[in-house]
Amino acid sequence: MTERALAIAARVEAFVRETVIPYEKDPRCGDHGPSDALVQEMRVKARAAGVLTPHILADGSHLTQRETAVVLKASGLSPLGPLAVNTMAPDEGNMYLIGKIGTPELKARFLDQLVSGDSRSAFFMTEPALEGGAGSDPSMMQTLCHRDGDHWVINGRKAFITGADGARVGIVMAKSEDGACMFLVDLPDPAIRIERVLETIDSSMPGGHSVVVIDNLRVPASQMLGASGEGFKYAQVRLSPARLSHCMRWLGCATRAQEIAVDYACRREGFGKKLIDHEGVGFMLAENMIDLQQAELMIDWCAGVLDGGSLGTVESSMAKVQVSEALYRVADRCIQVMGGMGVSRDTVVEQIFREIRAFRIYDGPTEVHKWSLAKKLKRDHARAHAA
Rounded to 5 degrees, what angle do the CA atoms 96, 97, 102 make? Predict the structure, then answer.
């Protein structure tokens, strides 16, 4: 690991532990995430500490994926950490995508305000499941767009759009005659209406997750991201690193839960000795050590593949499965070790458990990634035996 990445990660960790963690009890943290006022208050402090958007350097270049891993893990030591230092989804993935695909004009208009931490963004891809819309299978997309002079007109419904309420920048996916397309839009826009904010198990993302109606949204042709029909390709440019970024951040959260559970087990007594001296407890915490180490190694390996120039769709699917499942086991064991204290909100472990449970679904459920990997095995087998 490079010295610059370790130095940045150390500054981020110190900031999260000393400045961000005390905000976890702030009443502005609600069921639909922390308020924008709270986010901006933390970002003012992050900017002053020199740790705002730490994965993007002053010249606009990004840390490598392996370097980013240690920085995002440090930011994830609190559910509020990625928000405070501007490494949170969906903004982090949207910044990456715009940086890769956007024109200089689009970067100046949309990307700069995200990198500076002044604005939030939303990614409008998922659609209502019971209406046959796109979810894990984006080819089912029902939101349509057509060219009208110098504009594109978009109509459809979207669901589970993280951070739509309060976002200033949107990336909207729709289907043209050529295929999937992406558009950058200013928010709010009267043609994009939030029907409701869903009540969900997680509570770490500002604005929550919304059901949205898009009614005759007119977007200048110059605000199409890339080319018409190339949207699914661009989605993979975003999603492969974004899956890995989720792994990085939640590794930090699970590490924090383990710290709290170990401290509890080393101080709490039961049946004549410290809890950690009971094999039933000590072994769970030891298994957590193993799962955390395996998750870190998987992240590092997958990051190396991405740094090598591959999109790493297969590798990121493997990482998403292994890491999300391992970290869920870690969080679950921490709850079990702490008993009644674990299910209470006296510590952040209860929230970490809820957030990581949702992580097993976000950016593709475990089962979808396994299915995708199984299809690859079948294709590889067919090619190997074709001769």
Answer: 115
